Amino acid sequence: MAKLTSIINIGKEMENKLHSIDICTAEELIQIGSKKSFSRLKIRHSNICLVHLYTLQGAIDNIKYSQLPSEVKSDLKIFNDSLKDSQIRSLF
What we know:
single chain
């Protein structure tokens, strides 16, 4: 089981945030996915933004978040823009 900080884009601060939502390994992050992980983070931490979603997806795809393809960024932005508190809670 790989530590979160062993994968690209995940530093100590993001690792701590992911631990706060019970994601403790790279495998768990990959299994849960960027969107669900991001939604959980938004509930728990008020300072989570679109860049965090890009960071998570980049970590899962093993690329720097700045190198995500434009269609992936567009999909993630649409997802982020569509989130409302009630929608986030319904994901669980």
